Amino acid sequence: MSENNEKKFIIIQNAITQGIREFLVAFENNWPNETMYAFLLEVSCEGTSLEAVAATEEGLTRIAKKYAESYFNELQINEKRIELRWGSPEDGWYPSYNGNYFNYANQLLIDAHNDQLMELYDGKLNQLALNVLHKLDMQGLFGHMKIRQQRAIGICYVGGDNSDEEFLHWLRVINSIDVVERVKREMAARNEIYIKSHKT
Predict the structure, then answer these.
(1) I need a surface site. Which of 11, 13, 30, 103 has the fewest CB within 10 A?
(2) What is the sign, positive or negative, of the torsion defined by CA atoms of 64, 68, 73, 76?
């Protein structure tokens, strides 16, 4: 890769970094004092755009109550929490879709494709996003010690349209083994509920 191309990718990563920081400021202002359990960059599988989403325990409870048959049935609500925790980011997560946090980064990505620095589905955006998240994690942006261990940081495809295996693979790049294993257990519990609910 030429030095000029390397500089262009650094500029893209800097734009993604700025978008993340702006998103987190808005998140903390709009959902103050909530317990974040996940922060994801939601990337298009084509590699042409990205946004951010964050999930909180309180947000999960709100959406679980909405979907439960009875608003006051604690057992149903708890099952919905398990079922929805690692579902689509469109279900109860705090999104960046209405913000402008990633407009600049997304324009740079389009330019990179037009300049043939990137190709559709080449996975380069995934790597750029993971690089940024890893660097910010090392800087402590997502918390330290106990707080950080409560949070899964990673990427997913738009709408969560990726396999559990892909998602866990991306988590392993940034998170501790304990975090990854906890997410695996939570996904297994979700799958058990899904199987139980679809038994004839």
Answers:
(1) 30
(2) negative
